[in-house]
Design brief:
This protein is mostly beta strands. Helices cover about 5% and strands about 55% of the residues. The protein is globular.
Length: about 650
């Protein structure tokens, strides 16, 4: 259960294998270099959510699982299962600063919407790799907070297996998932299908969702070729936000009736990894499409987004100057297209847009016998934006990113590390709507220093980080501007800085205790915004204090128990850049309990989430009169679910 302390970087010692939760076979990671590589060979590693924790989360969704990891702020501001994923405190734009990858390919959208995580069933996931801090050199924009790489199951040679998982729970929740794979000497196939439905905690928030996906792979003496595909469909009713005064009486109430959204998504990618003359060559060609239709505010909103991407890359391992080296060279190209039509009795709008990205990057890693490691990398990135809405707005920008990471192993299983980086984010298509000029790209200078250690299966980590941002892109909700729909803007200079502490240790042979604490200070460094001096003000929706703790008890070979607690401190409401509302969103603490039991091919898991039935919200907003600048005293929130019960039963076939 050590991976529940997600603040930790993987230690670069021989004990790495013991510290990754639920993983017993030799393990590789791809996030750190875009090639398969053992984590102990990297100057700065990552957290891996392994098979055991994924199994214990059956019945939940992928955002539910990430929400349990320290350092993540997962927000619900729309009633959708695709909630905002935020690493290191970016508030309402957290999902635009945390890059989501699926098998190394980005699925974070170029629209102002969250990645479609809920259509990726947990039954089809092998592991999740989390790297905190900038990932801009290898992956481009939107990775200032960090990257989350979801690795799906592939068929291993000589295996044949299948899993059928049924789920039932509170609020009419039910689901069925099927996962099957077969691997031969040269050919392998893995497929998964998932259906989930729920009335959800809020009324008028019914969900129906299904997905299917898989991978075909061909192995050859020099490498492999693979074809991956997936598709998902979602129907969701939208309950609307609640005034806090009403939520205190009935948190399950709805304020919108008859409003809904539908989402159809598909992804396909063709790739290969080959070993040629001692070098590794890889290439991915991918296409994904997202179609959504919703009925809100008395009108229909139709949106189509498509992106095609290609990413060739080369890895050259070599020995020089007494060190082991790895040089990665690569390029990224993608072409985005977007169309949107909104039609209501009060307002109508149509728009098309495009964005093209072309980038080249390199990353060099060297590991010396003395235990000293260094990574140096850089990226040159050109982005071309065009928005057509009444008129035509064009923008071309050349952007750069770099990283320098050092690590030194010390006696006693300790190691010290330091990292310097520069990252960037380009405004999404939606953020550039209804503007006289396109927003400037956001830039960040990032630094981190820390110390970590591992002894046997126990480990700990302490680090301090800071990110100084310029032109941070943010959304200012409606009732501030004349449009009434809100607008997007570049903020004055801002800063994220904080401390992260995490540790995990066994207590006896069967109990593992894990804990973490994070302090995140997200503030405006200096400047005036909408006529108000907001220097030193806190960025909305970022709690300064967060903590997690868990106790995992392997009672015997069959029975396992886990109790976990998450705490988030108070935070400014959305839209309160001046911190002048007079109060913050309340702090909250949530306790979860999970029990698992294995008997033969059966695996049973029972969960009680929010055991204490705590009333809380992960998102809230205050409204400000655009003329008088007066605050509405009754903030609006999306109440989080109360006590929730989930039971899953899984049957495994094969060998």
């Amino acid at each position: 259960m050590a991976a529940t302390a997600g603040m930790a970087l993987m230690p670069s010692t021989g004990t790495t294998q013991e510290v990754i939760a639920g993983i017993t076979a030799p393990h590789v990671v791809v996030t750190a270099s875009r090639f398969e590589q053992r984590p102990e060979r990297l100057p700065i590693g990552m957290t891996v959510i392994g098979e055991r924790e994924i199994l214990d989360a059956r019945g939940a969704t992928l955002p539910d699982l990430l929400e349990r990891q320290p350092g993540f702020f997962v927000r619900d501001n729309a009633g959708s299962p695709n909630r905002q994923i935020d690493l290191r405190g970016f508030g309402v734009t957290g999902d635009q600063n945390t890059l989501i990858l699926l098998n190394g390919q980005r699925i974070s959208e170029n629209e102002l919407s969250a990645a479609d995580l809920s259509s990726i069933p947990l039954a089809g996931i092998e592991r999740i790799e989390i790297l905190r801090g900038s990932g801009a050199v290898l992956y481009g924009g939107g990775a200032t907070g960090g990257t989350v790489n979801i690795i799906t199951r592939a068929a291993a040679p000589g295996t044949e297996e299948a899993r059928v998982t049924g789920t039932a729970g509170s609020f009419g929740t039910a689901g069925l998932a099927v996962n099957a794979s077969k691997g031969g000497e040269t050919f392998g196939i893995a497929v998964h299908a998932d259906h989930r439905q729920s009335d959800n905690y809020r009324r008028e928030n019914d969900l129906r969702q299904q997905s299917v996906g898989g991978e075909l792979s061909w192995r050859m003496p020099t490498g492999r070729v693979f074809l991956r595909f997936s598709a998902g469909q979602q129907d969701l009713r939208l309950p609307g936000s609640l005034p806090e005064s009403r939520a205190a009486i009935d948190p399950r109430a709805a304020t919108r009736f008859g409003e809904w959204s539908g989402l159809d998504s598909s992804r396909v990618s063709l790739g290969t990894v080959q070993s040629i003359a001692g070098a590794e060559v890889a290439f991915d060609l991918a296409h994904r499409e997202r179609k959504s239709r919703s009925f809100q505010l008395g009108g229909f909103n139709d949106l189509i987004g498509r992106v095609t991407s290609a990413s060739p890359r080369l890895r050259l391992p070599f020995q020089a100057f007494g060190a082991t080296h790895s040089l990665v060279l690569g390029a990224d190209w993608d072409d985005w297209s977007y169309s949107n039509a909104f039609d209501s009795p009060f307002f109508a709008s149509t728009a098309t847009a495009s964005q093209g990205n072309l980038a080249g990057y390199l990353q060099h890693t060297a590991q010396f016998p003395s235990g000293f490691g260094i990574t140096v990398g850089g990226r040159q990135h050109r982005v071309v934006n065009q928005v057509r809405e009444g008129g035509i707005l064009d923008q071309t920008r050349d952007l750069g990113a770099y990283e320098l990471a050092l690590r030194q192993e010390l006696p006693g299983g300790l190691s010290a590390f330091v990292r310097l980086a520069q990252s960037f984010r380009v405004a999404t298509v939606d953020e550039n709507r209804f503007l006289a000029a396109l927003l400037e790209p956001q830039k960040s200078k990032d630094r981190e220093i820390g110390l970590q250690g591992a002894v046997g299966s126990a480990w700990w980590r302490a680090s301090v980080f800071q990110s100084n941002l310029s032109n941070e892109i943010t959304f200012i909700p409606g009732n501030l501007e004349a449009s009434g729909f809100g607008t997007n803007a570049n903020l004055p200079p801002t800063r994220r800085q904080g401390v992260e502490l995490a540790a995990s240790a066994p207590v006896g042979e069967r109990v593992v205790v894990t804990g973490s604490y994070g302090y995140t200070d997200a503030t405006v460094r200096e400047g005036v915004f909408q006529g108000i001096d907001i220097s030193g003000r806190r960025v909305p929706l970022v709690p300064r204090h967060s903590a997690t703790g868990s106790v995992a008890w392997q009672v015997d070979e069959r029975l396992r128990l886990r109790a976990a607690v998450r705490h988030f401190g108070e935070q400014p409401y959305d839209n309160d850049q001046a911190n002048a509302f007079g109060r913050f969103m309340p702090a909250y603490t949530v306790v979860d309990f999970v029990a698992g039991y294995d008997i033969g091919p059966w695996r049973f898991t029972g969960s009680v989430l929010n055991v204490l039935d705590k009333r809380y919200s992960t998102w809230g907003i205050v409204r400000i009169d655009s003329t008088t600048r007066a605050y509405d005293p009754d903030a609006r929130i999306y109440p989080a679910p109360g006590r929730t019960f989930l039971v899953t039963a899984e049957y495994r076939f094969g060998r």
